[in-house]
């Protein structure tokens, strides 16, 4: 594992986002890097389509988690 130099403002944004998404700072940065790579290599897909594809390939079915209204 290496060290990545990022500017202080971006580091602060990663720290804040990691709290919201319940990830470590490193996990948040890794997530953003992976999503960025997927978006760059699949420019015709939306973010939602990319995430749906990744979840599907991991065997996650969002349809089985249907939200019921009370």
Write the layout of secondary structure elements.
Elements: H1 8-20, H2 25-41, H3 47-57
Helix pairs in contact: 1-2
- What is the beta-strand fraction? under 5%
Q: Biggest sheet: strands, sense, closure?
A: none
Order of helices and strands: HHH
Give the mean pLDDT.
87
What gap, in angstroms, lies between the N and C termini?
A: 48 Å
Number of strands: 0
Shape: globular
The gyration radius over C-alpha positions equals 15 Å
Structural class: mainly alpha
Q: Unreliable stretches, pLDDT < 50, 5 or more residues? A: none
Count of alpha/pi helices: 3
Helix content: 55-70%
How would you describe this structure to a colleague?
The chain has 70 residues and is mostly helical. It has a domain at 30-61. It is 59% helix and 0% strand. The chain contains three helices and no strands. It has helices at 8-20, 25-41, 47-57. It is globular, with a radius of gyration of 15 Å. The mean pLDDT is 87.
Question: Features of this protein?
Answer:
globular, 70 residues, mainly alpha
State the gist of this model.
The chain has 70 residues and is an all-alpha fold.
């Amino acid at each position: 594992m290496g060290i990545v130099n990022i500017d202080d403002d971006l580091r602060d944004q990663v720290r804040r986002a990691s709290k919201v998404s319940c990830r470590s700072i490193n996990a948040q940065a890794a997530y953003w890097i992976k999503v960025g790579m997927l978006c760059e290599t699949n420019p015709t897909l939306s973010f939602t389509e990319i995430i749906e594809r990744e979840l599907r390939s991991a065997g996650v079915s969002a349809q089985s988690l249907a939200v019921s209204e009370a």
